[in-house]
Amino acid sequence: MRWRRFFQRKHTDAELQREIELHMEEEIAENVERGMSAEEARRQAYLKFGNVQQIREEVWRKNSWVGMENLFRDLKHVLRRLKNEPTAVITVAISLGLGIAANVVIFSGVNKMLLQRPPVGDPATLVEIFSTALHGQRVHATAWQVYEALHTQARSFSGVAAFTEFLQGTLTGDGEPERVWGQSTTTNFFDVAQVPMRLGRGFTNNEEYSPVIVLGYGLWRQSFHGDKAIVGKTVTISGRTFTVVGVTAPGFRGMIRIIDARFWIPLAERGELAPEQITDPTIPNLNVIARTKPGVTRTEAAAELDTLGKQISANDAKLYPGLGFVMEDAGSLAGPAVQRLELLLAALTAVALLVLCIAGSNVANLLLARAAARHREMAVRIALGATRWQLIRPMLLESALLAVGGGVFGVLVTLVGLRALQGFHIPVPLPIDTSLDVDWRVTLYAFLLSVGIGLLCGIGPAFAATHPIVPNALKGESTLERPGRKWNVRNVLVVVQIAACLVLLCTTGLYLHSLANASGMDPGFRTHGVFMMAIDPVHNGYKAEEAPLLLRRVRERVAGLPGVVSASWADTVPLSMDGSADSFHPAGRAADAEHDPRSDVYNVSPGYFDTMGIALLAGRDMNSVDPNTPKQAVVNEMFAKKMFGTGNAVGERVSGRQSTYEIVGVVKNSRSEFMAEENLPILYAGLEQNIGAGSASPLLGYSLMVHYEGNMAELAAAMRKEIHAIDPKLAVFNEKEMKEHIDDALIIPRVESAVFGTFGLAGLLLAAVGLYGLMSYSVQRRTHEIGIRLALGATRSGVQTLVVKQGMTLAVIALVIGAPLALAASKIAAKLQYGVSAYDAVTFTCVPIFLAAIALVACCIPAQRAATIEPQTALRHE
Amino acid sequence: MMEKKPISSEMLKGTLDMMILRTLISGDAHGHTIAKIIERSSEDVLEVEQGSLYPALHRLEDRGWVSSYWGVSENNRKAKFYQLTENGRKQLTVESSRWRKMARAIALVMGEAPAHERGE
User: Fold this and answer.
1) Domain contains A314
2) Does a structural domain hold residue A88?
3) Which residues of chain A neighbour B51 with C-beta distances below 8 Å?
4) Are residues A557 and A465 in the same domain?
5) Contacts of A427 (CB under 8 A, 6+ apart)
6) What are the pLDDT digits (tens) for A535-562?
7) Would you tell me which of A249, A323, A331, A402 could form a disulfide with A118, CB atoms 3.0–4.6 Å apart?
8) In chain B, what percentage of residues exceed pLDDT 90?
9) Which domains are delineated in chain B?
10) B54–A22: do the CB atoms touch at under 8 Å?
C-alpha cells in the first residue's frame, strides 16, 4: 500500500493540484456572485484556502520517507559522478571483485563442509548420533547392538534410523559394468530423515529382507536416462536383482555431505553385495540419525542418551567400555577430522582475507586520491554550512556502491571459478563429492563482505575529505596536508600492502618449492610404462576364497597379451592416500603396542617388484604359494633397519597382523603414502596367502599393475576384454598410467601451490598498482615543488632519485616489517603440510628481491615522469 | 499560523475527519462542497481553513474510509468526488458516539443540560 503510494506521488500531486484549482474556481465564482470584483474574489479565495504550496508539500511528505528520499538523491548523485569516471569504477570493481571472489570460493567450501544441512524435511529436529568410547575421548560410528538399543529404548526420539557409509556395487545394464557407490539403510531411514522423493517412495517396514532399491537422482538420470516409469522395474547390482521402489529428489546424496551416495538398499540386503558383517558387535560401522520428538529439547535428549549409554556399558563392559553419545546436527561431520578441516578452512579464509585486505587498501588509496581531488568542493560546502554527516553520507554510499559492484563481479568470477573446479577430482576412487555451489548463504556472505569492505575502505577517505582546513582550501592551497606530518594514511596503506604481499608470496614460494621438490623426486619405483586397472571381486558376488583363483586367471591372461612385460596384483597402489598399516615386532618377542614400529603393509602377488621396478637387494621374491604354508614377506630397507638394525634381514621372522612372516627378501625403499615423505618401513606380504584373512575387500579393490611396452590404449582395451571374457559382469575401474597416478598423488601440494600462487600473484599485482598509484599521485602533487627544484638547478637524475628513494623507502620498510610475518606464516604452512620447510633460504632470498624489483619498476615510471617536468609549466601549475 | 495553537489544531484534526465523514453521509461530494457544508451547517462558526481539508481527505482515503472518483460538478467542472465507504460508515458511528459522550461529559462539567442531539 505504502509502496504504491510512494511511486504514485507525482500522480497524486498532480491530482491534488487539479482539485485545488477546481476549489479555487468554485470559490472565486461564488465570491463574484456575491458581488466582489474579480481581483477581490481571487484574493479572498486564497486567503480562505491558506498556503497551497504547504498543503501540497504536506501530502507529498506523507507519501514518502524522508530518509529514503535523501538516500535516493545521494544515490542519483553518486551514480552520476561514477558514470564520469569509468576507469576508477572498473579498477575498484576488479580489485575488490578478485578479493571477494577469493573469499567467496573459500566460503563456499566452509558452507558445504560446516554450514549446509542435507536437503531433508525439517532439518532442525534431525540429529546424528555418534558413539563415544572411553568417556568421550574417541568419537566413532555405532555398533549394530548399540543401534538396536537406541532404536528400541530411546524415548526422546520419534524415530531412530541407521545407515552405512560406503557400499560398493557393480551396476550392469546395457553398457559396460559400472562401479557405483551406495549406502545401506534401515527401512525407516527415509521416513525418519524425511527424504524428499522424486518418484515412488522409500522403504516400508516390512521390506527389511526384500531386494528393493532406491535410486539417487544422479544415477537415475545418468544410467536410466531419467525413465519416469522406473518404479517397479528391476536393476542388477553386482549380479543381484533389486526392484526399484523410488528415486530421491535432486540434491539428496545421502546424509554425509561429502559422500556422493547414488543408491540405497535395506541394511539386511547388504550381505548380498558385500561380505562384511555389519552385525559384528565389535565393529562400529553404522551411522545413526534420529528425529527428536516435538517438545523434547536437545538437552533432554542428551540426558537420556547419557543414561542409555551407561546402561549399555554396564551390561556389556567389555565390548563398550565407557560408552557415551554425542549429538550433532544431521549432516555435520564429527571427530578429529573436523578440527583439521576447520583449521585448514580457517587458514584459507585468513589468506583470502589477506588478499582482500591488499585489494581494500588499493581501493582506499584510490578513494583517498579522489577525496583529495574534491577537497575544495568540500571546504566550500562546509563553509556554506553543510554538516559533516551530509558530506560523509554520499561518500560512504559511493564506496559501498563500488564494493557491491565489486561483489557482483566477484560472485561472477566465483561462478566461473567453481565451474573450473568441477574438473578437479580427488584422486581416490571413492565417491567423494567435491562440488561446491553458490547458494543463498554464499551470496549473503559475498554481499555483506562487499558492503563491509566498501564501508571500511570508504570511511577513512570520507573522514579525511570532510575534514579539510577550510581557510587553506578557500585560499586554493592543499587542505589535506597537515604541515609537519611526514606519514600519512596512504603511505601506511602501501606499506601494509607490500608487507601482506611478501607474506603471500613467501608462502607461495614455499609451496612451489616443495611441489618442485616432490615432482622431481624419485618415488623409488617405475614411473613410466606402468599401467593399472582395478577390479573388486568380493563386491561383485565373489566369495573371499574364490578371489585368488579369479585374480590368478586374470593375471595369467593379461600376462599373455602382446606388449606386457610383467603383471602383478596389489591390494594398495603406492601414493593412494589409502592403505593399511600395522605394528610389527620380531617373532618370539612379546608385542609392545607403544614401541613396536608401525609399517605399511602391501599384499602383492609374485612379480610385483619386477613390474614396479623396485630393486631386490637381498634374498628373493615371494613364491606363488598356497595359503597353508608358512607366510612369507619381503620388506624394504627401512623396515629391516628399524626392526633389526641391519640391512639384511633375510631369514628373520616378524609378527604382526595376527601372523608371523618369514622374511625372504629385502627391497629398496620407495615412497608409500606421500611423495614428500621420509622413507617408511614397508612389509610386502603374499596376496594369495592373505586374501581370506580379514582383508578380503580392500575399499578400492585390487589393482593389476602392468609393466608394458608399446601402445597403452590398445593394451587397456585388450585387458578389459580379457577380464570380461572371464566374467562379463566385473566392473573395471581406476584405470590409469602410473605417471597420471603420480600427478594425482601430488594433488595436495599442487592445489596448495595453485591457491597460494593465485592469491600471491593477485596480491603482487594489486600491491604494484598501489605503489605505482601512490608515486604517480605524489609526483603530480609535487609538480610545483619539482619545478622549483629544477628551476633552481636540480638535475633531472637528481629528481628521479628523489622520487625513487621515496617509494623504495616505503618498500624497504614494508619488507622489513613483512619478513618476520612471512616467517611466522611459513611456520604455520609447514605445520599444515608435510614436506614444506619453514626455513627455505631460496624462497626467503628470492621473494624479497623480486618484490623490491617490482617496487622499483612501479616507482621508476612516475620518477621518469617527474624528470620530464618542464619548470616553465610546473611553476604555473596550480 | 498553525504553530500558534497546536492543541486546537490537533483537536481539530480529529473532529475534522469526523465532520467530513458526517457530510458525506448525505451523498458524494467534492472538496469545495464539503467545505461549504461544514461551514454552513455550523452556522459559519467553524470556519475551517479550507486548505486543511485536502490533507484530511487524503488521509481518510488512505485509511479506506472514503473512496474517490472523477466526475462533473454542478457547475460543469471536472471534479474529484468523495464517497463514504462501508468502513467509513462504521468509523463515523464509532467517532460520533465517542464525540457525544465527550460533549455530554463536558456539558455536565460545565453544569449545562446535555446538548441536543442533532440528526440521528
Assistant:
1) yes
2) no
3) 20, 49-52, 54-55
4) no
5) A576, A577, A741, A744, A745, A747
6) 888 777 787 778 888 888 999 999 988 8
7) A331
8) 2
9) 2-109 (1.10.10.10)
10) no
